[in-house]
Amino acid sequence: MIYSGNSIKVTLLDNGVAELQFDLQGESVNKFNQATLEELREVGQTLSKSSDVKGLLVTSAKDCFIVGADITEFGAGFSRSEEEIAKSVEDVNTNIFNVIEDLPFPSATAINGVALGGGLEMALCTDYRVLAEGVKIGLPEVKLGIMPGFGGTVRLPRIIGADNAIEWIAAGKEARTEEALKVGAVDAVVSADKVREAALDLVNKAIAGDFDWQARREEKKGPLKLNDTEALMVFETSKAYIAGQAGKHYPAPVTAVKSMQKAAKESRDEALKSEAYGFVKLAKTDVSRHLINLFLSDQALMKKAKTVSSDASAVEQAAVLGAGIMGGGIAYQSAYKGTPIIMKDINQAGIDLGLNEASKLLSKLQSRGRISAEKMANILNSITPSLSYGDFDKVDLVVEAVVENPKVKHAVLSEAEDKISEDTILTSNTSTISIDHLAEPLKRPENFLGMHFFNPVHKMPLVEVIRGAKTSDEAVAKTVNYALAMGKKPVVVRDCPGFLVNRILFPYMGAFMQLLRDGADFVKVDKIMENFGWPMGPAYLCDVVGIDTGVHGADVMAEGFPDRMGYDYKSANHVMFENNRLGQKNGKGYYKYELDKKGKPKKKTDPDAVELLKPVVAEPKDFSEEEIVDRLMVAFCLEAVRCLEEGIADSATDVDMALIYGLGFPPFRGGPMRYIDDMGVAEFVAKADKYAELGNLFKATDKLREMAANGERFYA
């Protein structure tokens, strides 16, 4: 044994090859925390002085290789000064990774499982890499608002070429084995049980002189092999394209490309300094802080969901009531993730629509090579269409997804309850109607709760699991378990009109209706809110959701919260609805829609919409960007605060994550509770007071005022 630590062990094999094995004790995965880095430092120094070692084999004792850096350490690490962070990064590169790369003998890495971020950067330090079949590798740091800092932007371009490296790094791409081999990121792909043997074989052949490992190493340490014209074309073209794709709110992808461009003419050691500079600049941004917190919050959210559902048995057979687009989407997601599902409707047309929706989604996956024709057929076969309740006595969980009408839902839920077993969980995919109200006619309300999916089901990660007053813990656990099995992010909330996400959305839309009433231009409002970071502005959102859906939801919310969500004027949405301008579903709403070459609706401004609104709005007024953002976001955030104070959600994290995953709240802003924290609670309350005369939507709660007075925050 050459070295034995808590994370790394180094053993000298019979042929003089040292096997460096990562095996972080007490963890299910290997990751680069500070302790592991310090052990790697010691290992590098030990190996560099050894006269017995002829080669190095890097392996992992776990199913993964290395998942990357320990992100829980980023908060403390990034809170230091830029100078301190830069010094730390340079030290790690110079005295740890460079030492491994510069060992006086050949080296190879056996990548037996996922190798991301620092994990791939470790593998890039060795001369050769062997990858197990089906394993993904990549440098996803830009998804955290930063860029590689352990040499990824330096070594990867020199190994796979600048074009490929830019694509991988700027997109945070996780490459599959076929692509990794094709571009030269790895030297061989073998079955998982052969990966160590193959990597060891490469080391032995390099020792024997079959491979010129020194020449390969020198290529990694020198400048990129691009002339000035080639470098200009590659980097300038890439920067322009990536800037357009990433948008101005996400600086990491372009910064990474700029770092690679600067380093193109530099030696490895100089290039690593350029990388460190870019890394440090990004590490100190609010964007990286929020995206890192988002990653950690996601982990906490999923851990909480798994804890809630830990004692629940799996849903072996599900059912959805009501086919169509929504029912078909739920059926597809369930079947695709491995849970067979019955899709019931009262007529064949609905069944056909639901099956077509599932088939269309699967066909897209097949056309992209994501699934085989055989797998597509198997998934479709696990969706059982039905016009009757024939096999519902064998179902573990039912999702009701019929029209958003309480009388219709009461009838369907009562009918379904009579057809299922006493232990079957009955859920409603309602978006606004109180779960307690829907439970009124049911015999077993303890087995009933809400399971609110967001459209389109296959894309939107959030599922709101809504607990009614009589819902049992067992019913919640089983429903959360099913949501996890479907690949969703479940957030458990308590019952109220609109629950969590839609309850918070409608004040935002109410504030938008007020702005239009007061003379704002909805096209300008859309542009400003999209510039703020929303995926679409409020008028466009109304059209996408459907004006009729919005009007119906607003009526439900007005009944539930008349003090602040009722209208004492005719809203722009009601005007659109009365004139049969329903949005994308019939080609006209605030905008008009025409299909593009791909068959997708493309919006265009429509003077007719402006004319229709003139009788119910004030004279046009040019509101400032600040006022538009403040009026919409104050109303939105105050309702989020109320939901937290009333216990609709358990924590600020649940609120923020639900609104990011369910509505597309700008991730780089961290969620509404972090948005308030960043502004300062006192300043936020002052903004609310500025608009309090507009109504109760803008009136801060007493508890929020107390927080402001005491200098408190929602997050520590």
TrEMBL record:
<dbReference type="InterPro" id="IPR050136">
    <property type="entry name" value="FA_oxidation_alpha_subunit"/>
</dbReference>
<dbReference type="GO" id="GO:0036125">
    <property type="term" value="C:fatty acid beta-oxidation multienzyme complex"/>
</dbReference>
<keyword id="KW-0413">Isomerase</keyword>
<dbReference type="Pfam" id="PF00378">
    <property type="entry name" value="ECH_1"/>
</dbReference>
<keyword id="KW-0560">Oxidoreductase</keyword>
<feature type="domain" description="3-hydroxyacyl-CoA dehydrogenase NAD binding">
    <location>
        <begin position="318"/>
        <end position="496"/>
    </location>
</feature>
<keyword id="KW-0276">Fatty acid metabolism</keyword>
<comment type="pathway">
    <text>Lipid metabolism; fatty acid beta-oxidation.</text>
</comment>
<comment type="similarity">
    <text>In the N-terminal section; belongs to the enoyl-CoA hydratase/isomerase family.</text>
</comment>
<protein>
    <recommendedName>
        <fullName>enoyl-CoA hydratase</fullName>
        <ecNumber>4.2.1.17</ecNumber>
    </recommendedName>
</protein>
<dbReference type="InterPro" id="IPR012799">
    <property type="entry name" value="FadB"/>
</dbReference>
<dbReference type="GO" id="GO:0016509">
    <property type="term" value="F:long-chain (3S)-3-hydroxyacyl-CoA dehydrogenase (NAD+) activity"/>
</dbReference>
<keyword id="KW-0520">NAD</keyword>
<feature type="domain" description="3-hydroxyacyl-CoA dehydrogenase C-terminal">
    <location>
        <begin position="498"/>
        <end position="593"/>
    </location>
</feature>
<dbReference type="GO" id="GO:0004165">
    <property type="term" value="F:delta(3)-delta(2)-enoyl-CoA isomerase activity"/>
</dbReference>
<comment type="similarity">
    <text>In the central section; belongs to the 3-hydroxyacyl-CoA dehydrogenase family.</text>
</comment>
<dbReference type="Pfam" id="PF00725">
    <property type="entry name" value="3HCDH"/>
</dbReference>
<keyword id="KW-0442">Lipid degradation</keyword>
<dbReference type="GO" id="GO:0006635">
    <property type="term" value="P:fatty acid beta-oxidation"/>
</dbReference>
<keyword id="KW-0511">Multifunctional enzyme</keyword>
<dbReference type="GO" id="GO:0004300">
    <property type="term" value="F:enoyl-CoA hydratase activity"/>
</dbReference>
<dbReference type="InterPro" id="IPR036291">
    <property type="entry name" value="NAD(P)-bd_dom_sf"/>
</dbReference>
<dbReference type="GO" id="GO:0070403">
    <property type="term" value="F:NAD+ binding"/>
</dbReference>
<keyword id="KW-0456">Lyase</keyword>
<keyword id="KW-0443">Lipid metabolism</keyword>
<dbReference type="InterPro" id="IPR006180">
    <property type="entry name" value="3-OHacyl-CoA_DH_CS"/>
</dbReference>
<dbReference type="GO" id="GO:0008692">
    <property type="term" value="F:3-hydroxybutyryl-CoA epimerase activity"/>
</dbReference>
<dbReference type="InterPro" id="IPR029045">
    <property type="entry name" value="ClpP/crotonase-like_dom_sf"/>
</dbReference>
<dbReference type="InterPro" id="IPR008927">
    <property type="entry name" value="6-PGluconate_DH-like_C_sf"/>
</dbReference>
<dbReference type="Pfam" id="PF02737">
    <property type="entry name" value="3HCDH_N"/>
</dbReference>
<dbReference type="InterPro" id="IPR001753">
    <property type="entry name" value="Enoyl-CoA_hydra/iso"/>
</dbReference>
<dbReference type="InterPro" id="IPR006176">
    <property type="entry name" value="3-OHacyl-CoA_DH_NAD-bd"/>
</dbReference>
<dbReference type="InterPro" id="IPR006108">
    <property type="entry name" value="3HC_DH_C"/>
</dbReference>
<feature type="domain" description="3-hydroxyacyl-CoA dehydrogenase C-terminal">
    <location>
        <begin position="628"/>
        <end position="689"/>
    </location>
</feature>
